Amino acid sequence: MNPQHRHSWGLAFGLCLITLAVNLQAPLYTTYAQLSGYGAGATAVAFSGYVLGVLPVLLAFGGLADRVGRKPLILVALGLSMLATLVTLLWPSLEALGVARLMMGIGTGLASATSTAYMAELMATGDPRSPANRVTASTSLGFGLGAALTSLFLFVHHSATPGSFWLQLMLAAIAIGVVWRLPDPARKIKDAPLLRLPLFPAGSLPYSFSMLLAWATSGLVIAILPSVLATHDLQRWSGLSTFTVISCGLLFQPWVRRMQPARATGLGLLILPLSYALLAWGASVGSLAAVLLGALGASSACYGFLYLGGLSAVTAMAGVEKARVSAGFFLFAYVGFSIPVVVTGLLADVFGADVALIVFGLALLAGASVTGWRIVRTEAYVTRLSHC
């Protein structure tokens, strides 16, 4: 293996360990809530601490990597992932989860601000898609793998501090050693601007809103679904549902790359509400097969059709402002990852989980219908202009 490939796989290993820590505690959300005496609303608030960490870093410190280099940010992110895991290991509670999620958000924000550029510099390839694909694959795998590992340990022995926490600490320590040895070829710019305000080109908002819907659905599966599954004694399977709704989207990405962005996004908006309906019904009646099939369908939409289709569309509209347009795209995504999840959790506390799932489903169906209609109209208008 040549040095470029070895270095790129080393960075991919580090990125995977950073995101692995993010959902490591997902199967224990209900346990933490019970230990702390809170309900689904408070659990969703603690879950959203991640967004409070990641958004300020992405927006206010987007240019930090240009000042200090790429490698230091990855090392700090790995250190924060270990610290977050250690907090929940020593203090298993909902309050600790909120603090840990905040730290993991900061770490993920730091890694996201530089990972694709760093991977491109290490791979030294003329194809700009290869670094992005490797970053997407490694981070998506990590996001789902952490929850799946915890579920496996819980099947053997139920504990508020399972062995997966110690495994993450050990692997992250190894990843720090691996990343420490990587080169950092980027030239540092001492006066590079830190602030990168988001930009929304004409026609990009429907694609950005589709990501809000997608990540709201995946956030609900991670934060709210475990408490619903617990009523049917299926809580230990929540990690597998998290893995399915995030990481299985990778299986569909090669297909999506061959599609036009508008068609991929439209197909994702069709699949998402149907998959959610199956998933929510399965959770309500205690059907694990329906939950996993629904999670697989939602994953194809969230991390396949809508993610790649929407990102490809807004990138094509961006011109030379790709960084600011990408920031706007992910701003919508992370808003979806927080506010709808918190509202659904509060509804579950007041009216019950079934009512909350139905309300979310109706809002998702309405949002997907309107967004899909706007994309179809926009593409039809662009087609008429091109023919004229």
TrEMBL record:
GO terms for molecular function: transmembrane transporter activity. GO terms for cellular component: plasma membrane. Gene3D superfamilies: MFS general substrate transporter like domains. The keyword Transit peptide does not apply. InterPro entries: MFS (IPR011701), MFS_dom (IPR020846), MFS_trans_sf (IPR036259). Keywords: Membrane, Transmembrane, Transmembrane helix. The keyword Amino-acid biosynthesis does not apply. It comes from the Bacteria. The chain crosses the membrane at residues 7-26, 38-61, 73-94, 100-120, 141-159, 165-183, 204-228, 234-252, 264-282, 288-308, 329-351, 357-376. It holds the Pfam family MFS_1. Residues 1-388 form the Major facilitator superfamily (MFS) profile domain. This is MFS transporter.
